[in-house]
Specification:
Strand content of chain A: 5-15%
Radius of gyration of chain B: 35 Å
Number of strands of chain A: 5
Number of strands of chain B: 36
Largest sheet of chain B: 7 strands, parallel
Oligomer: heterodimer
Largest interface: A-B, 103 and 120 residues
Mean pLDDT of chain A: 77
Distance between the termini of chain B: 42 Å
Order of helices and strands of chain A: HHHEEEHHHEHHHEHHH
Structural class of chain B: alpha/beta
Helix content of chain A: 40-55%
Number of helices of chain A: 12
Shape of chain A: extended
Helix content of chain B: 40-55%
Strand order of the largest sheet of chain B: 26-27-25-28-29-24-30
Shape of chain B: globular
Chain lengths: 305, 1018
């Protein structure tokens, strides 16, 4: 360690720092990071340090607004970092949305939190690119004294941003000037072809969790407002355990080869068995309990087949 | 048990979610023993929150206990308790079906991995909503802010409480989390991935997952976002997929090129029948007008989000999303089959709607099914009864069956099946119609056809014919049973039997049977001819006894000479003998009880032809080796609920009896008491209902615990042919019934009663014989009173508080009869002359039936009397079902028409007084037939006075009208005759043991009784 470096010892990463674990786990996050790496071949060492900064949580106060991302990076000092990108024009957006409206899958995937894999072709048809394609698409600035562009602070923010995009692909849209809701509303309007009420559907209002009961109702302490319903019950396990999880894609940070459903399947299966046992309460001490237990297995196989 | 003043709450305490039971009767709840004393702040019926003491019950033990409470039992419990039993069942249902998802929660400084319930649209959401809507205030009386206490001096305010929805959701989540975990902890592995740590925190008692670092916080967000589509109670509408069959085009050959259509709809959550085609959804507007969605855009987004999920599960749907407004897809039959068989269940799991053509579902018409052609193997299979009856079906014979494969109403040969299999397409056009034939199903059908058929034991064959084919058939294909040949005749006779009225009452029957009794006796005769065990379960008072007597005479008429065994409770033996003497004087009878009873089977071979042997359940249990070595003509169990516990020695002994015809009489509605039903059937028709454990699993638990209609209907189909139950309320029965029916109920003395009786008699008689005038009259009346008290209950005579159980034949009998009254939902008045007896009756009725029993006697002030009458008359399930009255205080004036049973526990010997008391119920306003039961003890002064009055009806009016005075005028010999105890007055060795069955409590009672005997003053 040289004296110079010692004297300028870095500050510790702040509490609120964003520690990046894995960046670019989605293809769109990956695309974002690749763009940076593509434009910065000359400064590869800075990218490496930027990545370390991002991992150790030196980036904080990240804000995404149309055309502008700002953050603070704690290194030797606190530096203000910003990134500017072009906001698409209304005409460009309208065209992109018109293209997306031609296939329901765009809206379906966006509603399910996924970025359509061919989103780039949509914007390319509007002569634009959602991701930065040329180095001047990204205009960065940092208050540090480093003359290089990007400096490690900019790179660190870029990586953090990559991870943010992983989680919320709509941030990319927001950076380009449209919120998720604006995009979805516009798609809905085009789909119905009617310019009717397409304003934001009210977020499902949180149901109240408490209620005031009138004194007259309290007097009917043990009287149900309507008779207790005769409910139908069923204790049959699903054909495959953890079936409920199989309709979901794995969660974003998932790193295992087996799906979450397979990973948790035995927990589901044994709990299902326990619950079924409690519900149907076939006592273990009955004389033919052993034979019926012996019979269970082949029967379950028969169900599967 | 009916009880008020107990309340059950769920306490949504994240640290320890639990149930809280409180109130005056909390301890009486069936699961109270699981609780730990605790206090809880909850809102009282005043609307004010306060701290109350009660019992805290952990979910771990509380949920299975609540879920095991049957629907009928729950309906008798306070509504808050019943509500949470249903919630517990719902929780088990969700976990068993895997409708739970892992989630993550921030708690204080750390993060926890938790499970929660997933209540998606469709049936789950519907059940959730219906249950939450029925919450009584007591069930969600949890103050919204748990810890706030009203400041001192502040006026207490009506408290805000948790909504039923929020509390129920919290409960289901807590149950999911409790049930998904094991109680085993393992050591943390170093360098585990987050997935492994997460899994461990989901599986083990410690839910703590992660605490530090921003990345972990992001992980939390990611997991929350991940499960969001499945979490909680969600949504107003969902995507729904309907598979439509291709139009049948006659010109096409096998239709391989015909296209099935899967159409997309938006389905309303509130009303699943409300479907809107996707095209209308895209067009907008209409969904709001039709109330499916709150806005056109949300309607579209519900549909599209559903399409995205469905696309992941069924790729052809995903492909359709390249269109701007996808409305449907067309597919070939192989793909349609894939959807039908694999994708559809997964879409349903994911909370989407699916509508399939009914005829192609597994049980539908156009699927392969097997027809089981069931017939008797030969003419000899339907055997001829040794007793000379006509052909019958012994449950031991074997029946032959043949398989037939059937598709869309047509029979297929093996060759045809193989042709179908060659097509390789599971959905094919067969003779102009679409049918679904899976190759596995075809192979299974071929396998069965190649076996040709087989044999079934008759009990299995009958069960199959009545709808339980899958129990014996060893195949997964749906089965239809067709009965042929002699067996078909048997079944036809069986079905027609209850209405057949051509029964010719034997001339040897003395008396007249009512029309429905003739039908009943005829039904028994048919069952006896068919050699199928029969259960006569007519309502109390419809005359089961005379119907059975008519049957015995019928068999005797056919030349059957073997003896009949009649097993009944000790308390009714006297009644039986009296009825038999009266209606069938030609039938000899012997008693198999008391020290003089037969000690080996040879005694029964020397009986006169057709002798009826009476015994009790206690002696059946003790002497079964002797009784089961006799070939009986008829083995009859009266009050057959005595064998309700199939594992008891009594029930085993009953099953060991050998008889040509088995019959059970019971007045309790056995179709609602399934353990009892099984046990009685196992006696009547062994193995017909299958092994007990299987019966519990497939019928008893689903019906009793969960009130499920399907198994109940199936069980009814199975058992109905063997049970004849007529209700007093049946219009066809009512016209045969007088509006008032009087019956004498002859009870037996216990040994204790008999020895007290004898001792009292001996002691007083010496004094009476020497006395004259007033003194003599006084002594006679005192003795009469003493003997009546002894007949009532030894405790009344001895002036001691108890114990009461097992010591009085009369009390035993009235308890048995009241049990039937209560089981039928009727109400009864019980009159006694003695306040001390009334108090003891109240005490015992309350103990045995768990209901509160009012007692109206001279000491009750007017206001309280009015209130008692008002409550009893109220048309409310909570009204007391039994009302005890002293004849003097309650015998006149009152209007108690809510009762249709009147019991006279002891006798006034004055018809006018008794009738007047009876008229409390039998008067204007009474719409039902009133049954009057007058209890008296066999072989005692009670029976003798009764007989005397019967013989001299005219006397009854003139002399006896004055009450009991005439007795004091009798001379010594007349008194002796009247008062003395008949030698056969006591039925059994030891009534306490005999009648208590194997109930430990009553055996103790018997021991107490034995101990007490030495204390009786000599």
């Amino acid at each position: 360690m040289t004296f110079d470096e010692f004297s300028k010892r870095k500050r510790p990463p702040p509490q609120q720092g964003i520690k990046v674990r894995e960046m670019g786990t989605t293809w769109w996050g990956q695309r974002w990071i690749e763009a940076l790496e593509h434009f910065s071949r000359d400064y590869l060492s800075r990218l490496g340090r930027g990545r370390t900064y991002a991992r150790t949580g030196r980036v904080h106060d990240l804000k995404v607004a149309p055309g502008l991302v700002t953050a603070t990076v704690t290194g030797t000092e606190e530096y203000d970092v910003s990134l500017r990108m072009d906001v698409f024009t209304n005409a460009e957006w309208n065209m992109a949305i018109k293209i997306m409206a031609q296939e329901a899958r765009y809206a379906a995937l966006l509603l399910a939190g996924q970025m359509p894999p061919d989103i780039e072709t949509v914007f390319r048809r509007c002569k634009r690119s959602l991701f930065p394609s040329k180095s001047h698409d990204l205009e960065t600035d940092c208050s540090c004294p480093d003359w290089a562009s990007p400096c490690k602070h900019v790179a660190a923010m870029h990586y953090v941003l990559g991870e943010a995009f992983d989680r919320d692909p709509f941030l990319l849209f927001e950076l380009r000037g449209r919120t998720r809701d604006q995009v979805l509303a516009a798609l809905a309007r085009l789909r119905s072809g009617v310019d009717e009420d397409v304003k934001t559907p009210r977020r499902q209002e949180l149901a109240p969790t408490s209620v005031e009961v009138s004194p007259e109702a309290w007097a009917q302490y043990e009287v149900p407002p309507v008779p207790l319903p005769a409910l139908r019950f069923n204790f049959d396990p699903p054909q495959t355990p953890a079936a409920i999880l199989r309709s979901l894609p794995p969660p974003r940070p998932w790193s295992l080869e087996e799906s979450p459903a397979d990973f948790l399947a035995d927990l589901y299966a044994s709990a299902s068995e326990r619950a079924r046992h409690m519900a149907l309460g076939v006592p273990e001490s009955t004389p033919d309990a052993t034979t019926s237990a012996g019979r269970t297995k082949p029967r379950r196989k028969a169900n599967k087949s | 048990m009916r009880s008020e003043g107990a309340h059950l709450l769920y306490v949504p305490d994240p640290a320890r979610p639990r149930l809280f039971l409180w109130g005056a009767n909390a301890q009486q709840m069936p699961f109270a023993s699981l609780g730990q004393p605790a206090t809880q702040r909850c809102v009282l019926d005043t609307g004010i929150a306060d701290e109350v003491a009660g019992l805290a019950i952990d979910l771990q033990v509380g949920v299975p206990a609540l879920a095991s409470i049957g629907v009928a039992e729950a309906s008798q419990l306070p509504a808050s308790v019943a509500t949470w039993t249903a919630a517990a069942k719902l929780a088990l249902d969700l976990v068993a079906r895997g409708r739970v998802i892992p989630t993550i929660e921030q708690r204080n400084s750390h993060t926890e991995a938790r499970w929660c319930a997933s209540i998606l649209l469709g049936e789950d959401a519907d059940r959730f909503a219906r249950l939450a809507n029925s919450f009584p205030p007591a069930a969600h009386a949890i103050p919204a802010s748990m810890n706030r206490r009203s400041r001192r001096g502040q006026q207490p305010r009506i408290a805000r409480v948790w909504t039923p929805d929020a509390l129920l959701e919290h409960f289901l989540n807590a149950c999911a989390d409790t049930l998904m975990r094991t109680d085993v902890s393992t050591r943390a592995q170093p360098r585990a991935t987050w997935e492994q740590r997460w899994r461990r925190a989901l599986h083990e008692p410690n839910a703590q997952f992660a605490g530090e670092g921003f990345a972990e916080r992001l992980l939390t967000d990611d997991l929350k976002a991940w499960i969001k589509p499945l979490a909680g109670v969600s949504g107003e509408a969902r995507a729904c997929f309907r598979l439509d069959l291709p139009e049948v085009d006659e010109s096409a050959s096998h239709g391989d090129d015909a296209l099935f259509t899967l159409r997309y709809f938006l389905q309303s959550a509130r009303d699943p029948s409300l479907l809107m085609p996707a095209a209308d959804v895209y067009r907008g507007g209409a969904s709001i007008r039709r109330g499916i969605a709150s806005s056109a855009r949300s309607a579209q987004e519900h549909l599209l989000a559903g399409l995205a999920i469905a696309g992941r599960l069924f790729p052809p749907i995903e492909a359709s999303l390249h269109e701007a407004r996808p409305e449907s897809i067309s597919m070939k039959s192989a793909v349609a089959w894939e959807f039908l068989n694999n994708a559809a269940p997964q879409l349903i799991e994911a909370g989407l709607g699916v509508i399939l053509p009914a005829e192609l579902t597994r049980t539908g018409q156009r699927r392969l099914r097997m027809r089981m052609r069931l017939s008797s193997p030969s003419a000899s299979g339907v055997s001829t009864d040794k007793g000379g009856a006509q052909g019958g079906l012994s449950l031991d014979t074997m029946l032959a069956f043949q398989w037939q494969a059937e598709l869309a109403g047509e029979t297929l040969t093996v060759d045809e099946l193989q042709e179908l299999a060659k097509l390789k397409a599971p959905l094919v056009r067969h003779r102009g119609r679409w049918v679904a034939v899976d190759s596995r199903e075809i192979n299974e059908a071929i396998r069965l056809l190649e076996q040709k058929g087989g044999t079934l034991a008759a009990h299995e064959g009958l069960a199959a014919a009545f709808g339980a084919a899958e129990r014996t058939a060893q195949t997964s294909l749906p089965i239809e049973v067709a009965v042929e040949g002699g067996l078909a005749d048997v079944l036809a006779r069986l079905r027609a039997a209850p209405e057949a009225s051509e029964f010719d009452v034997p001339d040897t029957f003395v008396g007249t049977l009512r029309p429905y009794q003739v039908r009943g006796a005829g039904w028994l005769a048919t069952m006896s001819d068919l050699r199928l065990g029969a259960c006569l379960a007519d309502d109390m008072g419809l005359g089961k006894t005379v119907q059975l007597i008519a049957l015995l005479l019928h068999r005797r008429r056919l030349g059957d000479t073997a003896p009949t065994l009649l097993v009944c409770p000790t308390s009714v033996v006297g009644n039986w003998e009296r009825e038999l003497r009266r209606f069938a004087p030609s039938l000899p009878f012997v008693r198999h009880y008391g020290p003089q009873r037969a000690r080996d089977a040879s005694a029964f071979s020397e009986l006169q032809p057709g002798t009826v042997v009476f015994t009790t359940y206690g002696l059946l249990r003790r002497d079964w080796p002797i009784l089961s070595s006799v070939e009986w003509s008829v083995a009859a169990l009266d009050e057959a609920q005595n064998i309700k516990n199939a594992a008891s020695r009594t029930a085993q002994a009953a099953r060991s009896l050998k008889a040509q015809f088995r019959v059970a009489l019971t007045g309790t509605p056995i179709e609602n008491r399934l353990a009892e039903l099984w046990s009685i059937f196992e006696f009547l028709n062994p193995r017909f209902l299958g092994p007990q454990a299987e019966f519990r699993r497939t019928f008893a638990i689903p019906i009793e615990r969960y009130g499920q209609a399907e198994p109940a209907e199936k069980l009814k189909r199975l058992t109905q042919p063997f049970i004849l139950r007529r209700l007093k309320s049946d219009p066809t029965i009512i016209q045969d019934l007088p509006s008032k029916q009087e019956m004498k109920i002859i009870c037996s003395l216990t040994r204790e009663q008999a020895s007290l009786y004898q001792a009292a008699l001996d002691e007083s008689f010496a004094k009476i014989e020497g006395a004259e005038g007033i003194e003599r009259r006084g002594r006679v009346l005192a003795l009469l009173t003493a003997l009546k008290q002894i007949c009532n209950h030894p405790a009344q005579y001895l002036g001691e508080p108890g114990p009461l159980a097992g010591r009085s034949g009369k009390l035993q009998r009235i308890l048995e009869m009241l049990e039937e009254v209560l089981a039928e939902g009727d109400r009864a008045l019980v009159f006694t002359q003695y306040r001390e007896m009334g108090e003891r009756l109240v005490q015992e009725f309350e103990r045995v039936f768990g209901v509160s029993v009012p007692f109206l006697h001279g000491g009750v002030p007017q206001g309280a009397r009015d209130e008692m009458v008002r409550r009893f008359q109220q048309d409310d399930s909570r009204s007391p079902p039994i009302f005890v009255l002293s004849v003097k205080a309650g015998g006149t004036g009152l209007n108690l028409t809510a009762a249709n049973h009147v019991f006279h526990y002891d006798r006034w010997w004055n018809p006018a007084v008794e009738d007047q008391a009876t008229d409390r119920a039998y008067r204007i306003g009474q719409r039902r037939s009133v049954q009057v039961h007058k209890l008296l003890c066999a072989g005692t002064v009670e029976e003798k006075i009764d007989e005397l009055l019967e013989r001299k009806r005219e006397l009854a009016e003139s002399i006896v009208g004055a009450g009991e005075q005439w007795i004091t005028e009798l001379n010594d010999q007349e008194l002796r005759d009247l008062f003395s105890l008949a030698p056969d007055a006591v039925i059994s060795e030891d009534i306490g043991e005999v009648d208590a069955g194997e109930d430990g409590e009553s055996i103790q009672g018997a021991q107490r009784q034995r101990r007490r005997k030495s204390e009786v003053p000599a």
